[in-house]
Design goal:
- By secondary structure, this protein is of the alpha/beta class.
- Helices cover about 40% and strands about 15% of the residues.
- The chain has eleven helices and ten strands.
- The protein has an eight-stranded parallel beta barrel with strand order 1-2-3-6-7-8-9-10, surrounded by five helices. Strands 4-5 form a two-stranded antiparallel ribbon.
- The longest helix has 17 residues, at about 120-135.
- The N and C termini lie far apart (about 35 Å).
- Bound molecules: 1,6-di-O-phosphono-beta-D-fructofuranose.
- 1,6-di-O-phosphono-beta-D-fructofuranose binds near residues 21, 22 and 232.
């Protein structure tokens, strides 16, 4: 971790990353609630909202769409990713290089690490290469730290999520993105376990405005540094409204009631 390496994708030290790699990770089924989101331009337009500190996409989407948005939103190059068609032990192929991401204008890299998977050793080594290369380009490093695999019983338990955030610090991420462990106390432990590395909460499947903003408020109160979110934004008919609310909670320290009123 290098303090400040994430500055291009944070605002006042906090992050609101809009994740849009679902076409690879889950398939087009994630676009069904709002069919217009099948077109990446629709989600890049959403990402121009002031609250969004970076958009995370895979290579093909970056190549085809980022040139039209490079002045509007920082790019977080999600380097690895796997499809839902893969039925094996959790693993993720590296789909583009750090050098190529830098050439496309990326400000930071994103990398999934499945700690505990039978493929942990290779994933750690791939992360090492990407992390060290990102340092050469002065790019921030965000780890999607998702412990999972056949040996892991509960991938969102407090122990597991604290371990997930600690893996980010140990392996040299600037920000670790972790699943919400279910309570403020557990999130607080995950944040403490990360030392001075930043921890952001992962969005998860779509919930109501109030439920989602309440969880984000809880995570922020527990010391989280923001959010990396996909479906809870782009699966809404009015994504700008939830981004207004998230901006209030994350950057202006608003209560849920205040955020709902924005
Ligand atoms: P969501 O906010 O929609 O959960 O997106 C966050 C994210 O990490 C995406 O970047 C990724 O596509 C997806 O979740 C992977 O989720 P999972 O591996 O749990 O299916």
């Amino acid at each position: 971790m290098i303090p400040g390496a994430d500055s291009a994708i944070t605002r006042d030290g906090k992050a609101l990353i809009l994740a849009y790699d679902h076409g690879l990770e889950h398939g087009p089924v994630d676009f069904e609630p709002v069919p217009e989101t099948t077109d990446p331009s629709t989600v890049f337009d959403v990402a121009t909202h002031d609250a969004v500190t970076a958009i995370a996409v895979q290579k093909g989407v970056a190549e085809a769409y980022y040139p039209s948005y490079e002045d509007d939103v920082p790019l977080l190059a999600k380097l690895n990713g796997t499809s839902n068609l893969w039925m094996g032990e959790p693993d993720s192929s590296v789909n583009w290089s750090v050098d190529y991401a830098a050439e496309l204008g990326a400000d930071a890299i994103g990398f999934t690490v499945y700690g505990g998977s039978n493929h942990e050793v290779e994933m750690f080594e791939e992360f090492r290469d990407a992390q060290e290369n990102a340092r050469e380009h002065d790019m921030g490093v965000v780890m999607w730290s998702y412990p999972r695999g056949q040996g892991l019983k509960d991938d969102t338990s407090p122990d597991t999520i604290a371990y997930a955030s600690r893996l980010g610090l140990e392996l040299g991420a600037d920000i670790a993105k972790v699943k919400y462990p279910g309570s403020a106390d557990a999130m607080s432990w995950a944040v403490d376990s990360a030392g001075n590395m930043k921890v952001v909460m992962s969005g998860g499947s779509k919930t109501s405005d109030e439920a989602f903003l309440s969880t984000v408020r809880e995570a922020m109160d527990a010391g989280a540094d923001g959010l990396a979110v996909g479906r809870n934004v782009f699966q809404r008919q009015n994504p700008e409204a939830i981004l207004d609310g998230l901006e209030a909670v994350i950057f202006d320290d608003a209560s849920v009631e205040e955020a709902l009123a924005t």
